[in-house]
Amino acid sequence: MRIVGKALIVALLAATLTLLSSCKKQEAVTPEPQADTGNTRSVLVTPENAEQVAEELISQDYVEPGYFTVSMSNVWHFANGDAESGDAFVENLTQNTNDVYFDLFLMENQDSAIYESPVIPRGGVLENFALDTHLDAGTYDCVMIYHLVDGSQNTVSTLQVEVTVIVEG
Prior knowledge:
By secondary structure, the protein is an alpha+beta fold. The protein folds into two domains: 2-59, no CATH class; 70-167, Sandwich (Immunoglobulin-like), CATH 2.60.40. It contains two helices and eight strands; from the N terminus they run ααββββββββ. The strands form two sheets. Strands 2-8-7-4-5 form a five-stranded mixed beta sheet, with no helix packed on it. β7 (138-149) and β8 form a beta hairpin. α1 packs antiparallel against α2. The radius of gyration is 22 Å and the shape is elongated.
């Protein structure tokens, strides 16, 4: 499936190059409006950069819409129940297709979140945050529920990940 998709991209780029080179006069090209893709912009393909753009597209990892590649620490330390963690981080990789947010629950009580994150855009990193709920010193098994959201912040799918929260004192 990936090979067919990559071959299609190369064929489209070749067709674009053929069309560009057959034009007798050069005109300004206005790119079509694109959906918001985070911090990246579309690249205008020209005869000079077509091969490089094709190679970059082919070399990128593909993540299907509605799926999510997790990049995060899974053991979070807090100096006390109200402090920010110095080692907790969650990154929404640029190759993911959706913005995300997550809710963190104690494993034994998934009715009340102990932390609700803001929306993390593609390419964004959330770190150095405090829990919304004060916890006494101890080690807590938790479940983090990611919500992959569309442009209107409606949940597309969810993903659950186990996290250990350690409150030192």
